[in-house]
Amino acid sequence: MQRERVLITVKTYPTLSQSYVELVCTAGFRDDGSWVRIYPVPFRLLDAEHQFEKLTWVDLPLVKRVKDTRPESFSPADRNDITLGAKMGTQDGWRERRELVLRRGKVWTNLTDLIAEGKREEVSLATFKPARMIALECVKAETDWDAGKLATATKELQQMDLLDDASVREDFKPANKLPYDFFYRFEDDQGREARLKILDWEIGVLYWNCLKAAHGDEVTALVKVRQMYESNFFAKDLHLFLGTTYEWHKRAPNPWVIIGVFYPPPRPQLEFAL
Known about the structure:
- By secondary structure, this protein is of the alpha+beta class.
- Helix content is about 25%, strand content about 30%.
- Helix 5 crosses helix 6 (about 220-230).
């Protein structure tokens, strides 16, 4: 076990878990630009003092996950031993964030190479720079959680020893299931096209906020989501944080999904010339 300092850059939308009630896939960067996956994290069941925002430094004890062969996967040794640090700012065109994510960390541009490295279990988290963004797709999905999974998660909630306060068990409700699946279509540096599902918490929160602002009108809400994830983000220096799932890492032809987006402002032309 060792303590690690990690800049959290990934928090996926909450999903039901048979063992932990509800889970959020969490990942980020060490100071040297290397990736680390922190799992399991029942984020919304943590005490408020241990809940962290994205782009915040956290210090916590981690142990390598034995059954998970993905090299970046670690578990928190003690969920109540998480020290929150400063949030990394956006000054000078995201200079500090760019330095860690894009300069110290590796940026992939070729899907074929990335998929091959994943199959060899060399990498399961990556920063990817598309050569061309095509579109955001919004696909209708089931509006409710699977009844069996919900029942199991509810039963697990009543038995969890990490909840000393009985009121938490009574008050906690699973996150609302998103009624749409979101996908990005894009091309890599060789013109290979991909369509990857977006699991980022941000797009889920954005959808619910837009739906509320639209007084329940789903069509209007989706227009607003597209404006952000197409018109806004496509004009940025957009990078995608990709990850593989434990279940499909070795089995799927392309096991990668989008677990976060990184969207600093466009780089000045002078910077390209340097």
